[in-house]
Design brief:
Layout lengths: L6 E5 L13 H9 L3 E4 L7 H10 L5 E4 L2 E2 L5 H14 L4 E6 L3 H6 L8 H16 L6 E2 L4 E2 L22 E3 L4 H10 L2 E2 L9 H14 L8 E2 L2 E6 L3 H5 L3 H10 L7 H8 L3 H12 L3 H7 L2 H7 L1 E3 L1 H13 L4 E6 L7 H17 L21 H14 L11
Parallel strand pairs: 1-2, 1-13, 2-3, 3-5, 4-5, 5-8, 8-9, 9-10, 11-12, 11-13
Antiparallel strand pairs: 6-7
Helix pairs in contact: 1-15, 3-5, 5-6, 6-7, 9-11, 9-12, 9-16, 10-11, 11-12, 14-15
Amino acid sequence: MPVPALRLGLNLGYWVGGNDASNLSLVSLAEDLGYSAVWVSEAYGSDAVTVMSWIAARTSRIDVGSAVLQIPARSPAMTAMTAATLDTLSGGRLRLGLGVSGPQVSEGWHGVRFASPLGRTREYVGLVRQALRREPLAHEGRHFTLPLPDGPGKALALTIRPPRERIPVYLAALGPRNLELTGEIADGWLPVFFSPDHAAQQLKPLEAGLAASGRTLDGFDIAPGVPLVTGPDWRTCARRVRGYAALYLGGMGGREDNHYTRLAERMGFGDGARAVQERFLAGDYPGAMAAVPLEFLDATSLLGPRERIAERMTAFAEAGATTLNLMPVGPGLPGPDRAADALRIAVEAAELAGLLTTTRVPEGPRTRGPYDAQDAQDAQDAQDAQNSRGENHTHDHA
């Protein structure tokens, strides 16, 4: 059986915790290496659209994606205007990722009630697509009504014409019902903590949604965000992902409403995830990091030397992933030089696995690996512990 094709993407994440303007230089390298897309996130710091515009203006081939734009932050019409403008300025390179965010950000930052996320997402995506088709924006729904009744407003149509009739829409989704909705109305899925060994249970509701819309997985982009840490010992590499995993398993919600903890439970890591959560909510961030099961980190990341990463990439592809959006050397990048080296190694690994048979890797000097000295590791452990507190992080799955 032939190995499925796999694209590589670069996920820059949030512009916090060491991920600043210097790391935007990675975009040019990713384009030269043949990466298919670069993705940008937003929480309650820098916005994604500004960074995406900067990237689009300085590239010519690589797609530019939002992972994700927050639904409560913008009206459907504003998102359509932004998408049409970015797609026009980039020459048809936009990938529009959307997510409902979470109750803390939606209600605390944007002042929008976090209620009926599935219904709101369905109406929102429908309105965005209606506007991008340049149809008069008229809608009477449970969550959106346009134009407002008994007022001077009228149904307006988008005045600019994007270069593409259909801009691809991706949704961030975790739960089974949201996955089914994603399959029904979206062109791609942006999963977090995607594991080849546990993907089948997530694909079932996704395929059900696709079937409801008369489609299959063929042509549907499954594009997980995957931490990438390169080095000779994969167990040592896993230490760099602990802060990231502890934040989501422990801090993204309360004891009863953390969607990431529930996902880990469905994957069979319930005891470990609950231990992480208890320690995190008690303020024991180093303890929460230590409690993350090593097997969970390995299942959801790319860790170790080139050959091991090649094997894991093959597993991701065989499990259904079509694009791997790599977060090089983990969130809170220690420096663009090490991240650049990781991006090169990822391409080499994909070629070794027969996934990227035509990609050429430019010659360039190797930089010191992130685990060649214990002092570098100790410094990163301290940074990860600080990042795991979660003051500046969030995600947009539900």
